Fold these 2 entries.
Entry 1:
Amino acid sequence: TISKYYCLLFQSKFRDMRISRIYIGIFLASLLFNGCASYKAINYPFPDPVDTRSKEITLQEKKTYTTTQGVSADNEYDGARLNGFEAVNDSVFRAIVSPENFPINISTYFSFRVWSEVEKDIELEVYYTEHDHRYWPKLSRDRETWVRIDSSAFDTLKAPNIATLKLHLTPDKLYVSGQELLTSSDVKKWGDKISSKPHVSTSVVGKSKLGRDMQFLDICQGLPKGKDAIVVIGRQHPPEVTGHYAMESFVEEIMAENYLSNAFRKKFRILVYPLLNPDGVDLGHWRHSAGGIDLNRDWQHYHQEEIRVVANHIVKTTKKNKNDVLFGIDFHSTQKDLYYTLPADYDPAVKGLKDLWLQGIDESFPDYTPDDRPGALNNPISKGWFYVQLDAEAITYEIGDETPRDFIREKGRVAARELMQLLVLR
């Protein structure tokens, strides 16, 4: 995209070159139509840029592994991660797990099904070829109800990169997973449920690298023209399902039928992009997209389809409708609950919003204090992009991997209520 600055620069150069006014007019009209008037995300020069050009990934082979001891495992479903399975002896078995490429963040995700021809107690080693164990294993028979494995049946004493599980197997397949499964189809079902409510429309704003839909929810009561807006994004990193749970509750509270939510929807436009990395989610990736890249480092050059689609759509739809974005929130997961925020000397459109918002969350929970982590905008991440592109208050909302799920959802609802109260009264 050619900025207004470059349009003026070209005008000056053409005057100096004394090209005829007719050709100047034709050239500038072309620029205005194709460049200066287009709505695309800027390329902001972050101090610590990251090379986000695509890198090769290794796809796991989808298959069922069967041992001579009658114990089998498979990865033949979306969201699975299993790169090998073997018998160590008659009662000990090993699941081998590798990342999509390397180097990579320590997000040692795994998910597979395991079963036995006859009922049998086994010891299962989850062996990581890179990095150490991270997630507390979750078990499910139906993919709907998940339970954390009991501490008496789980340890990592053999080695940091080997998690040992004690399992009771039957002929029925048992899901063993680092986190609950929430694939692109699951997220779409949630989005479709939200869009069935009044004042919500859903659309596909583009495709991922492998052709999966990039879903968008547009929440607005009345016409969107001229309304201030907030932007919600999530799931840039595939295993981070606790952040997704928080995002769900946050959006669902905005959609609630009560005085505050109704007033908020009338006054504001809410743009929701619930799943930025559908390929990585369905491929069972630890961290990266199908392009082999951490998407939350691509908010500068937009080399990856997913970030380019979403960033340009945010800019285009808000500029065309004259929506000033006041608040951008990106939902993630890490080892503990915390908030990555802008430093105090930054100057977003709404002064003091973040501090009042966190104060409200703090006061809502007697035994919880928000962990505020202000940080400069050095890397090309979404938080920095919200600020430099949209002049918005920007939050990376992190939820702990093992934070109780009920608390995640309650805190998401409270976060939405506190934000709505502050902005409605603004």
Entry 2:
Amino acid sequence: ADELGLDLDQFGDDYNSGTVKAKVRRDAGEARALQLTGTPSFILNGERIQAPSSVNAFADLIQAAIDNAPAPTGEPQEVHEHADLAVYINGEQIDFSGDKYQSTDDESLHDYTHFHDNIGHIIHKHLTGVSIGDLFDSVGVSFSKACMVLDSGESYCNTNTKSLKFFVNGAEHPACHNYEINDLDQMLISYGPTEEPAVEAQLASVTDE
């Protein structure tokens, strides 16, 4: 760091920062959930691919993905929508009402989706196309089909006995990170035993505000 001319005080603060360490733990947990064993690893449209043999081979893969992509649906539109959310990990509900998860007039964690007023179960959305993943990314939480990694770095990934489930309006939904928040949605994320009898009670606990 000294040879590179970095600010050594800043370097030391960042090296020992709990926030930085939590981000590293989140990234490592997500890598484990995706079964990544080394670098570089490549994900294309959510699927792991073998390292291409050349830049041209990589370009061909990306172009094929572009060619097969659905046509854009138009420019994003401003909206003012709301949805209700509950997240349970091993039967315990996660509380998103704390200041670190909240956007304020002075500090917005995301331009188009957020929690605010210390209410952690109502999502605000201000632009079409915004997903539940956008919301979680803004508060330092990673959410995929395989794994949820909290801002503390704790990871909860699918195993033989436990699984992560995502419900929208009472029905299990296959999309996760990319699911677009819709007005009046009631969403539940639940991690626990694969056959979890408590899910019905968790679904009933999702507010309708």
